[in-house]
Design brief:
Radius of gyration: 15 Å
Number of domains: 1
Number of strands: 8
CATH class: Alpha Beta
CATH topology: Rossmann fold
Shape: globular
Distance between the termini: 29 Å
Strand order of the largest sheet: 1-2-4-3-5-6-7-8
Order of helices and strands: EEEHEHEHEEHEH
CATH architecture: 3-Layer(aba) Sandwich
Structural class: alpha/beta
Strand content: 15-25%
Length: about 210
């Protein structure tokens, strides 16, 4: 699919952040979305295949998508911030994108570690249209804040996620405040092996019609 890509550097709290801005092919964007990558200490980057699919699904739904590298990844400056620092990186990326597209509603999406980043940020940021969390690990930090978060929350989860087994994910989801939705993607592992097309289609479905669940 043809796409317009721009490499940008964003001023972050620990130094510059390397980013890619992608506009949808044809027509004006209807939504602005920031997409966050998996754990920086385990090879995660904005070029991760799940992150790419999240971004492409959102672009197909009409969003202008900003992917970026957390501090210490690729050309981004700084050192790993143990989740709290990465939340601030994402806040800076979102702020940059909102200044670039002030007229557009905005959303957040992320995979694995990045799913925790965007979920925390979305629940702290009034006006977030929705947040997409793919591969939300069930044991990564406290999730008590989700019990009162009023942002529309969409969880996209592999049926064989080793970092979020189905029983654990269902138990966690039961504690999450509405509006919310949980989509099971038939896949072999946490990285949605064999299920990337289904994942992207789910993103397209929700991104094109973001309504409370």
């Amino acid at each position: 699919m043809p796409r317009r890509i721009e490499s940008v550097l964003i001023a972050g709290p620990a130094g510059r952040l390397e980013a890619l801005l992608e506009e949808p092919a044809g027509g004006q964007p209807q939504l602005a979305a920031v997409v966050c990558h998996p754990h920086p200490l385990y090879g995660g980057s904005m070029r991760n295949k799940v992150v790419y699919r999240l971004g492409r699904g959102l672009r197909r739904a009409g969003a202008v998508v900003l992917r970026f590298n957390f501090r210490g990844v690729g050309a981004s400056q700084g050192r790993h911030g143990h989740l709290e620092g990465e939340i601030e990186d994402a806040r800076a990326a979102l702020g940059w994108q909102r200044k670039r597209y002030p007229e557009l509603p905005f959303a957040l999406a992320g995979f694995s570690f990045g799913a925790h980043v965007v979920m925390r940020l979305a629940c702290e940021t009034p006006g977030t249209r929705f947040v997409l969390a793919a591969g939300f690990a069930t044991s990564l930090g406290s999730t008590a804040y989700l019990e009162s978060c009023s942002v529309p929350k969409i969880f996209l989860h592999s049926t064989h996620d080793q970092f979020g087994p189905r029983a654990e994910m269902e138990a966690l989801y039961a504690t999450v405040a509405p509006p919310k939705h949980l989509v099971w993607i038939e896949a072999a592992d946490h990285f949605f092996a064999g299920g990337l097309d289904q994942l992207e289609q789910a993103v397209l479905d929700f991104g094109g019609a973001p309504v409370p669940c």
